[in-house]
Amino acid sequence: MNLDEIEAGLAELSLADEGRRFTVRQKLQQLDRRLKGMLKEGDDPRVLVAYARCASLSQLWETAVARWSKVRAKHPDYQDVASLELARSYSWLGNHQQARQNFSRLSKAFMKKREARKCLQMIQRRERMFAAKVLTELLLDDYGFKNEATARSLMHATLLLRGVGTKYAENITCSILRTLARIDGRDVAMEAKPGFKASLKAWLRPFFRRQVDLSARLAKASTLSPVPVFLCGLGWSGSGALHDYLRQFPEVATTFGGSEVKIFEGKGGVKDLLAATDWRPVLKEFVLRRVWGFVADSGISPAKAYNQSLVKHVQKRKLLALAKATERLVTRVMHDNGNSLEDNLACWLREVIALAAPGGYRYCLLNNWLHGQNAALAHSIPGAKVFVVVRDPRDQFVDYNNQTDRKKKSAKAFVKEMQAKLTAVIRAAEDSKGWRSSLTLLRFEDFVLKSRLRLELAADLGIDDPAMPNKHFFNPEDSKKNINIHLGYSKNNDLDYIMKNLAAANDALGGLCFPK
Prior knowledge:
Blueprint: H1 3-14, H2 21-41, H3 45-57, H4 61-74, H5 79-92, H6 96-104, H7 108-111, H8 114-141, H9 148-161, H10 166-183, H11 198-204, E1 227-232, H12 239-246, E2 252-254, H13 270-275, H14 279-291, H15 302-307, H16 319-334, H17 341-356, E3 363-367, E4 385-390, H18 393-403, H19 411-431, E5 438-443, H20 444-449, H21 451-460, H22 476-480, H23 492-501, H24 503-508
Parallel strand pairs: 1-3, 1-4, 2-3, 4-5
InterPro entries: P-loop_NTPase, TPR-like_helical_dom_sf
Protein name: Sulfotransferase
């Protein structure tokens, strides 16, 4: 592969769809190794630039800073490109001062370019988010909301910094605080007041950008919620291929761009809420952490909490509707409307899906909102469809250790984890006859290799013309490369250990794990 082909490959990967991120990462690693070898052969500036761009596309920001700094120091012709990429990298690392300094080094002509304007918008957005994190930490000092005025001011300011308009942020804040007060057993008639914290806007002006309040338009959105389709993987089991296949059809919508929204699993999620004996504090945790991204746990950063919350994925113009839906959920639960907590949560989830998917769609994909071992959490959602994708565990093990940036897993640790996951899937399959939703177990290898199975699956969902998708995201030939990858693995003892210790689970699942 010559340099022109590598540059063309990098340009193509920069435009790759988010759903192909694992394939993209693999290709970038290959190009990175190739470029590293080419650097040893000579000092071509194009090779060094491509090498630095490879780090940026891989989102290895510290590596990108080191490489682009070298480009700027050694090759004056690439000053503007290197300064722009350094500004972007520093911004992602949270060093906003360095980001601004590097951006200021751009020439006036280069600053007028579209890519420079987009970079500046990103830097400004991340500066506002940084200020929001600081305010969130201040808010956490008053996590119990004993001082309601302080909590209200800080929450309002944080919403402003996330790009929400003044009046709109005020209404959302009031709704959140009413919700929390009801969990504490206090009914409050809290409404937005004229001139609420007018001085706050002046204090926030360096970070503040006014948005049009579009909340009134939400009143017109009275369409029915589409049927939720949960696509559940078991960690590198291939659920992404099923997601790519189903989202091709015009009857199917994807929620929040196919993001994995963490409202069921993790601390303060639906799973914790349903398991709690004293569920009031967990309900408050659910509202603050999983819905709005405010945390009181020192072990997680405010930025990470925000990224894992529902508010991260909801459009700004729909935030007030989300606040009202959550307020209704808490009101129903606290006033004991005769329905179980599960039923009330199911009703709330359908409202959230209505916010996520526009009208006119029959189904709405929830990609890894639940993992396979927790599929039973969807049992109370009427009409929901739950798919659990099972893959050959040997391929899962090899794929995880080949592609993950985290610590490699031993075969023993992997088997222990998979035994727990598969046991939960087996239990869910046995209990699913009494569910209000439907459960389907799907073998990844069969789904990829058998086109007839894919057509039957689409037909069962009521897809009008399963042979003629509206768009093309799924390529069976790409997915076939992920089958039997364990055959090239050198440590056969690991593979034998996995097959031996998961044989019982495989039998209970009717041979879904290992080929016959």
